[in-house]
Design brief:
Layout lengths: L3 E6 L10 H11 L3 E5 L8 H12 L3 E5 L11 H20 L4 E4 L2 E2 L5 H21 L5 E4 L7 E2 L2 H8 L9 E2 H7 L7 H15 L1 H5 L1 E5 L1 E5 L2 E6 L8 H10 L4 E5 L4 H14 L1
Parallel strand pairs: 1-2, 1-12, 2-3, 3-4, 4-6, 8-9, 9-12
Antiparallel strand pairs: 5-7, 10-11
Helix pairs in contact: 3-4, 5-7, 7-9
Length: about 280
């Protein structure tokens, strides 16, 4: 990607009217760069919406997709693993229809299993997913997301390691999840830089030039993530985070997941452009 773009997680809250056509009109008015289509409750979208999103992409907007929450590649029941694989595939296929940049999803839960065992199971299913998409000619980026609780598979090391194994698999780094999962770490300039250094060293400049990040304020406990907050109402050090993005000349997308999605997207974009 040629620059860092700022997107909303879903349609802007201040949209006038309904539908994606109006959503992109509002994004244009706000000088924002696109949105993440939220398939969190299932991959369902009508033909008119696909047409409207495809038109927006042709006009220069960037669109990503978040897969359903009902995904667990480490489920005990084989039918649940198969259903999870299909939900990821459906997300990727739909995103491809309208020219999506990438998809992301929460890949698995540990379910009390050893971390290495879970990693191997996630990797096995990821291989199945990428092989099917390759056979279909679908080259969209597949991005397992860093997760916000210790019960969920997906710390930064696991996500990066998985990404070394497959050509079209790259991280989705949710910096708020990193912060919450660690009990308050990953919130200084140096810590943010270490994330970019890890990704650059393991995956190369390509990963830094095609980045996918989620950012929001976040409330957390010893168990990790509790709920999203607006940036200015949280302890999320977004200014130093954006400075680290600038230092490493990271390109790609930052998606605002705060409750006031477009407000914080604009807040971040304006601060970033001031650096």
């Amino acid at each position: 990607m040629d620059k860092l773009k700022f997107l909303t997680a879903g349609m802007p809250l201040s949209i006038e009217g309904k539908g994606y056509k109006n959503a992109f009109k509002k994004l244009n008015d706000l000088h924002l760069d696109g949105l993440e289509v939220e398939f969190v409750h299932g991959v369902r979208i009508n033909t008119d919406s696909v047409i409207d999103i495809k038109q927006a992409v042709s006009e220069g907007f960037t669109v990503t997709c978040h897969g359903p929450f009902y995904i667990n590649l480490n489920a005990r029941e084989p039918e649940k693993v198969e259903a999870s694989v299909n939900r990821i595939l459906d997300t990727a296929r739909t995103a491809k229809q309208f020219g999506g940049y990438s998809i992301t999803y929460h890949a698995a839960f540990y379910m009390g299993n050893d971390k290495k065992v879970v990693f191997d199971r996630v990797a096995k299913q990821t291989e199945i997913i990428t092989n099917i998409l390759n056979e279909e000619g679908n080259d969209i980026f597949i991005r397992p997301e860093t997760t916000g609780k210790g019960t969920q598979w997906g710390d930064i090391e696991e996500i990066v390691e998985l990404s070394t194994m497959f050509d079209r698999v790259l991280p989705c780094v949710d910096f708020s999840h990193l912060h919450a999962r660690s009990g308050g770490a990953y919130n200084t300039y140096d810590e943010f830089c270490k994330v970019f250094e890890l990704i650059g060293n393991k995956l190369g400049n390509f990963a830094l030039e095609n980045f996918h990040a989620h950012v929001a304020g976040i409330e957390y406990s010893a168990k990790g993530e509790k709920k999203h907050l607006n940036l200015e109402e949280s302890d999320m050090n977004y200014k130093d985070l954006l400075k680290a993005f600038k230092t490493f000349d990271v390109k790609g997308v930052i998606i605002s997941e705060s409750p006031n999605i477009e407000g914080d997207a604009k807040l971040m974009k304006e601060y970033y452009l001031s650096l």
